[in-house]
Amino acid sequence: MYFDKENLYDSIIRHWEDTCPEDIAGIKRGMLREAAIAAVSRANGYGITDPSAQHLFAGLMMTVSPSFDDNAMVKSHLSNPDVPQADRLSRMIAQLPEQAWEQIVKAKRYDALFELAPG
């Protein structure tokens, strides 16, 4: 599916366009590309290298909070060496309590869209 990072970035942008057009409305294509690059870089920082998981990471950045991984519980899930890297995000989504999601949304930082490393 992804032959190189450029295809991955393009695929993430297309996914955002298809699934959350209201969240990216008004953001220029070049800035979306920078956000996609940052999402992949941040996912890599947690050892998440599976392209599908990187897609999911980028989706959470755009639809929940660009800084969702600032949350301590999220960091714990994303850094857990006992969970295969491709499964960390889906497991985190299933196990994170509603209160944590609410805190993530309240603590939203838009500048995190362009951060290349985990905070």
Protein model, in words:
This protein is mostly helical and 119 residues long. It has one domain (5-114). The protein is built from 7 helices and no strands. Helix 1 packs across helix 3, helix 1 (5-19) crosses helix 4 (51-63) and helix 3 (29-45) crosses helix 4.
Q: Quote the distance from N terminus to C terminus.
A: 29 Å
Multimer state: single chain
Helical fraction equals 55-70%
Low-pLDDT segments? none
Domain unit count: 1
How confident is the prediction overall: mean pLDDT? 93
Shape: globular
- The class by helix and strand makeup works out as mainly alpha
Put simply, the count of helices is 7
Q: Please indicate the percent range of residues in DSSP E strands (runs of 2 or more).
A: under 5%
Question: What is the CA-based Rg, rounded?
Answer: 13 Å
Helix-strand topology string: HHHHHHH
Q: Describe the sheet with the most strands.
A: none
Summarize the model shown.
With 119 residues, the chain is mostly helical.
Task: Give me some keywords for this one.
119 residues, mainly alpha, 7 helices
Helices and strands, with pairings:
Elements: H1 5-19, H2 21-24, H3 29-45, H4 51-63, H5 72-78, H6 88-95, H7 98-106
